[in-house]
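Following up on my earlier thread - several people asked me to post the actual chain instead of describing it. Fair enough. Here it is, all 488 residues.
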Amino acid sequence: MKNRQEHFRGMYWRQLLVTAGMVLLTLVLLGFVFFSLSYIHMRQEQTGELEKRANSMAKQCVSYTINNPMDGHHLPFPKLHDDPNFFNLADFAANLTGVQFILYDTTQTRIYATGDGISTYTEADWNYLQELSGTVSSGHSVREFRDTAGIGRLIAGVPAVDPQNNKMVGVVFAASTSSSLDSLWRTFITLYFGVAAAMMAISLLAVSLTASQMVLPLKEMALAARQYAAGDFGARMKDCDQTDEIGELSASFNQMADILQAQELQRGEFLSNLSHDLKTPLTTIAGYTDGILDGTIPSASERHYLEIIAEESRRLSRMVRRMLDVNQFQTMDPMRGGRSFDLCESMRRVLISMEKKITDRKLDVEVEIPDASIYTLGDMDMIIQVLYNLLENAVKFARPGSTLYFGLRIRENRAVVSVRNFGETIPPEELPLLFERFHKTDKSRGEDRDGVGLGLYIVKTILKRHGEEICVTSENGVTEFSFSLRIM
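Reply from S.P.:
Thanks for posting it. Predicted structure:
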């Protein structure tokens, strides 16, 4: 029972049931309004036609009394019941028009009733017509619908007026059953329900197909999401070639899956590199410490190995500090508040702080920093970290005795900073990997024990938070890093 309820709570069934309910409600309301108005209109038309025929009969009655005098006087309308010729005339008119004519005099006395079906009139019907004759005698025409004993009748009553003296001489009723009207109305109902059923079926079919096209991709997404939660990022949506919202959602879902898969690969590589880089200093520290404690290392050499342990501890500390810096830089918003700083002064400060390392490598420095201040938008401390990392990296891998370039140029209202050194050419396939976490070339792993492979990754992270990119080129032993900042 629970599964069945959950099944009907699904998006497909909700869409189908809501649409079916709306279509059904619309058809019912339209049908009610249409049938009500059409039935009333047709009944008014038929009673209007009866009123015309009643007027015609009233004129015939008045004309007959005028053209058939008795004892030199006009025959009064109440005396028509004494003339069989008039009865024949009334019956002929009734048979010709299919209408029942009922005549009353001015005293509300029924004179004559024509046509078939008079025998079906009940006492209540005659009393009702007698009351209506009193209304008509006052000079008002009437149109009524009467339903007794399961028989519906349309009735129209008019006064018969003598045009010579403008005196009313009687009342004429024209009546007919509503069977023809009811038959036409039932035909309309049958036709309407047939069309309504066809519309309902077509609507449900269209909604079913549309809902299926909407629900199936969502089910695929739900299944793929469960696979992602289990660590499998290989599932992809198949309907990403559609141009509607579902297609856009599928394409975005696949893009998200690609990003998650790439991040998972990076996470695995990060953990692998992290374990490798942490294992080396930890193994060294543990090995030399055990050697000192168990006496394997002679007392005379203990200071040397303690210095190695201290250096490895500091390297481990730098690695952890760099990892914390990366996490901090990824969450900071350097553009908040619209802060600005002098980029030229920051470059001079970084250059001065690197003086000893530059001197130790016996490098010449070509400096191109404008004397005037150049203010750029961003976080000064973070940009100084970028400058320091780039310059430190350039000094570290520069050929001893070569020239190092550190400069700033203005290009299209932007300050372009460049750091260039002469050393080994970096292979083209290696350039995109320089900014990955813990990435180091095989050669640098052997020569550089101070590096942890996070310097350039921090550079890229900081510049990305500033909305900027960094470029690198390496040809014929000349490697150059450059980035730009917007000038205030």
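The chain is about 55% helix and 15% strand. That should answer part of your original question.
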